[in-house]
Structure formats: C-alpha cells, structure tokens
Write a structure and sequence with these properties.
Distance between the termini: 48 Å
Number of helices: 24
Largest sheet: none
Oligomer: single chain
Structural class: mainly alpha
Length: 573
C-alpha cells in the first residue's frame, strides 16, 4: 500500500524523465570534445574569449577578432569552467532542461503524460543533439538551438498564460527576455526569431486588452514589456563594458558601429559585372578608392592580402569582411576607436560621392554578410530553400547522409588543444591519436537512421494535420467558439519560424557562400520535430474524440451528451 501511494502517475512520469537523462549521460560518456584551431575567428576565438573571461580580463587585448562575435557562448564556457562541469555533460543537461521546458509548456495542449513522455523521448534523442558539429565541437552552435527552444517555450507559455496569474506573467516575461538576450548575443543572424517573438507579444497584448474578464490590464501589459526591456538592458550592459575596455560602444562590430555602414556603401556600388556571391569585386573597390582618400589608405594591404590573392581579387561577401578586418589592422589601426573612425570616414566619403552622382548604385542591401538583393536570385533561392527543407525533413547533412555522431580529433597546435581541455573540463583527441571504435557512438548512428526514415512521413502527416486544425478553426469562427485558436497560433508560429530560418540560410547560400551545413540549420531540425509531434497529437486527439462522439451519438440518443460535445467543439456536422 505504501509503494502504491508513491507510485503516482506524476511520480512515474518524473522518474521516466530522469531515467532518460541518466541513459543519455551514460551513452555519451565515451565522447570527447574537439575544435579546429586554424587561427581564424571560430573555435579559436570562442576558447580564447572564454580563457580571458576566466582570467577576469573580459575579452583580452584588442585585435581584429575581439569584437567579431557574440558573448553568449564564451560566458557559457566561463560559467561551466568555474563550476568544474564538463562541457559535454553540461550540454546534455542543457538539452534536458530545454526539452523538459517545452514539454511542460505543451502540457496545456497535450494533457496526457504518456504522450508528453513520447514527445520528450523524441526530442531527447533528436540526432542533431549528438551530431558531432553541434555536440562535440566547442562552438556556439552547440548550445544555440537549446537557447532557441527555451525562448520559444517561454514565449508560448506567456501566450497561453495571457488570462492567468499576473505574477506568472511577470516571471515568464523576465525569462523570455533573458533567453531572447542570450539568443541575440549568441549569433549575428539571430533577428530571425523576432517575427515569432513580436507576433506572440502582440497577440498576447491584444488578448489582454480585449478580454473584459481580465483584471489589472495595465500591469500585465507592463509585464510584457519586460521581454524587450531585458534584451535592451543586456545589450546596454555588454556595450558599456566594451566601451570601458576598448572604447567601442556596441555588442560586436558586425551588428553595430560603422563597419556595417561601410560594407553597405561598398555593396550598393553598381558592379561592372554582376556576380551572385561577390558584391564587392575588384572593379567596385577601385571605384571606392577613387572617391575615398581614407579607404585608399588600406589599398596595399587589402589588394595584396594572402586570402585576396587566393580568391583572385573577388572574394565572396563573408570572406571579404574578414580580409577587410585583417587589412585594417595591418595598416596600423590597432584600437577599436581607430578602426571605427576609419570605417566611418570611408563610408561617409563613399556616401558623399554617391549623393553627388559620381558613383552608380543599386538597391537591395540586406546585411553585412549578404549580397544586395537581385531578381536573378529568385530561381536559385527556391532551389536552395528546397534543399534546406529536404535536409531538415529527411534529417540529413549537406552530403545527404544521416546526422552522424562521431569522435573527431582536434586540429592545431598541441598547446591550444590542452587549453581547450582546461577550459571545457573535457578530454580531446590529438590530431595523430587513434580513435577506437565505440558502440555508444554506433547506437546514436543507428538511431539517426530511424529518424531519417520516419520523419519525412511524419512531416507530411503533420502538415495535413495542421491544415485540418486550420479548417476547424475557420469553421468555428462563425459560431464564435474559436476552436483550436491557441493551437493554430502556436503551430503557425513554429512552422513560420522554421521557414524563416530556412529562407535566411538559403539566401545566405545563394548570395554569400555555401551555407547549407547542418550546424547553421540546427534550429530547423528541432523546430520541425516540435511542430510535427504537436500538430499530429492535436489533430489526432480531435479526430479520436469526434469518432468517439460519432459512436455515442449513433448508439445513445442522449441530449446532454450532444450538448456537451457541441459546447466544446461546435456544432457537429
């Protein structure tokens, strides 16, 4: 009797969640971290920034890469190191927390512990969670998807709680703002989450304003303002510290300051010959030198740069930016203030020439890493979009293979690999060190094959289920019952966010460089699974209940039963 008292459904559910977590931890115990130390602004920069933060030296001495990328991942590494937690173990815990958060949020729409456990299991063993580019690799994309899941979960919960507790609204708004800031400061392309966040906040605010039963409306609306408020405060905090340390007020040079302005002015100069991935060819640079004495100061360094020669004078957009940073530093501008002054003056001189009609221009400027829009992108853009959707639906990598788990040796000097191990509290394989075959790695690869086989069919059914939910919602409008309103809003948000991410990467692929790597598409692999399961359950539950009521109406002619059904789902046809 005492055992039965403790074996409640809730206790069994929590126990299952923890057992899956323990199993995941055990199965990744043979994995090691890796990083590609090439002297570039990727893995090297993340480990270097974390090392400086650990030594209480902010981001270290200023150089061309110091303010090139976001602060979220270096801070994550620093906190992990201070608490002595291994990198891979903390990543599993972060995945667990993100999955549980989404599951707990969705319990209002999936009020069944068994199916919540199924959803949790599917998420925990998502092949993207153990794909070596987003699990073993010590880079910001190893945690980026989880931050997105946290953010979307908090925003969804905020929407579902729009008529609930004021205190809970305050708490959820603060959490949403925190994770929005974490996402924003993690990658430079993070504005893709804004449509979801803004739309959800507007719908939530409208629901609060127009519902006569909701009290304390002003306080609730002020609570929603915490979401952008926390983001703004986070940006200000990082900007103030950067200003104190380097004399640069901004989070990083690619999203603020004068560098984007210079790239914009260079990009909109009309090239002699259009090249889809080269917005600033040599002919464009020559035109800029002719009108900008300041920009001419780096001509020797820029045109004779080693990478520029490899690219034959016409590097792609993303490569050009790094060549520019290198050339500016080689020209003697060693501080953030001097580089910003150079970017600003160069941009102003080119802009003046454009205004005076000395340079022909084109429109369509997008961002610092993208070529300006041109209608000739339409066909390749749709082709690239089809490729991104295919990769995420079929759970494949850029080589159309399953998302494999692996142990990969680090590259670079041994001393940097030892630094990597000290920062991450994890072992790494040296370049020449043999990697033994491992059954645990094989387990995840076999599991990835299952996802690759099942997810395409699940996606097709989920889209059909979504259309069913949408039609049911439209039909219910005439009876003012608004069936599936919340469900439709949430599913639409997940689906549209998925498409926005795919479209962004597709445009980067056709207008910058090859970008269709699973690491960049990683949030899409999670969003498609979240959408698929939620859509299938909501529609399946509705169809099941309709079937049940069909049976009840056909065999038990009872007015109360029919009224009960109609009050919930609308008039039965």
């Amino acid at each position: 009797m005492r055992l039965r008292r403790y074996c409640t459904p809730k206790a069994l559910f929590v126990s299952y969640l923890l057992l899956v977590l323990i199993f995941r931890i055990f199965m990744v115990s043979d994995f090691r971290v890796f990083a590609g130390f090439t002297g570039g602004p990727d893995d090297d920069l993340m480990v270097r920034d974390a090392s400086s933060l650990i030594a209480h030296d902010w981001l270290g001495p200023f150089d061309k890469y110091t303010l090139a990328k976001g602060i979220t991942f270096p801070v994550y590494l620093t906190v992990m190191n201070k608490f002595g937690i291994p990198f891979l173990l903390l990543n599993v815990f972060l995945e667990f927390a993100a999955c549980v958060t989404f599951v707990m949020v969705m319990r209002k729409l999936i009020p069944n512990r068994f199916w919540l456990a199924v959803l949790y299991t599917i998420l925990m063993f998502n092949p993207m969670a153990t794909y070596y580019w987003t699990f073993n690799r010590v880079y910001r994309d190893s945690i980026y998807s989880y931050l997105v899941i946290f953010l979307f979960s908090c925003i969804i919960s905020l929407f579902l709680n729009r008529y609930g507790s004021l205190l809970k609204t305050v708490w959820l708004s603060a959490c949403s703002g925190f994770f929005l800031a974490a996402v924003w400061l993690a990658r430079e392309d993070s504005p893709w989450v804004l449509p979801f966040v803004i739309a959800a906040l507007l719908i939530t605010a409208l629901g609060i304003c127009f519902n006569k039963k909701v009290a304390q409306k002003i306080k609730r609306l002020l609570a929603l303002a915490l979401v952008p408020g926390v983001l703004i405060l986070s940006i200000l905090l990082v900007s103030i510290i950067n200003d104190h340390e380097y004399g640069y007020f901004g989070t990083n040079e690619f999203t603020s300051g004068s560098l984007p302005l210079l790239i914009k002015e260079l990009s909109i100069i009309k090239p002699d010959v259009w090249n889809p991935r080269v917005p600033i060819p040599k002919s464009t640079r020559e035109k800029a030198y002719a009108v900008s004495p300041t920009f001419t100061k780096i001509k020797g360094q820029l045109e004779n740069n080693h990478t520029m020669r490899i690219e034959k004078g016409n590097p792609t957009c993303d490569i050009f930016v790094w060549i520019l940073l290198d050339s500016v530093q080689n020209a003697g501008m060693k501080s953030a203030s001097s580089t910003q002054k150079f970017y600003r003056q160069s941009a102003e001189e080119i802009q003046k020439a454009i205004n005076e009609g000395k340079l022909q221009t084109r429109g369509g400027y997008m961002t610092i890493f993208e070529s300006p829009w041109d209608n000739r992108y339409i066909s390749p853009l749709f082709k690239a979009l089809g490729e991104t959707v295919h990769m995420t639906v079929f759970m494949e990598d850029h080589l159309h293979q399953k998302l494999g788990a692996a142990n990969v040796p680090s590259t670079g000097p041994v001393n940097q690999i030892r630094t990597l191990e000290r920062v991450t509290n994890n072992l790494a394989y040296n370049p020449a060190e043999p990697i033994p075959p491992q059954q645990k790695v094989d387990f995840f690869n076999k599991l990835a094959s299952v996802y690759k086989f099942l997810n395409p069919a699940a996606t097709v059914l989920a889209v059909a289920a979504y259309l069913y939910i949408f039609v049911r919602f439209l039909i219910s409008i005439r009876t003012k019952k608004y069936i599936f309103f919340s469900e439709w809003i949430i599913l639409t948000g997940l689906w549209m966010s998925y498409l926005v991410r795919m479209l962004l990467l597709s445009y980067s692929d056709v207008g910058t460089n090859f970008m269709l790597y699973p690491m960049y598409l990683a949030p899409g692999y999670w969003l498609i699974v979240m959408f698929n399961f939620s859509s299938l359950f909501i529609a399946g539950r509705s169809l099941w209940e309709i079937g049940q009521n069909h049976f009840r109406f056909g065999n038990i002619k009872h007015k109360d039963i029919k009224n009960e059904y109609n009050s919930t789902y609308g008039e039965f046809d």
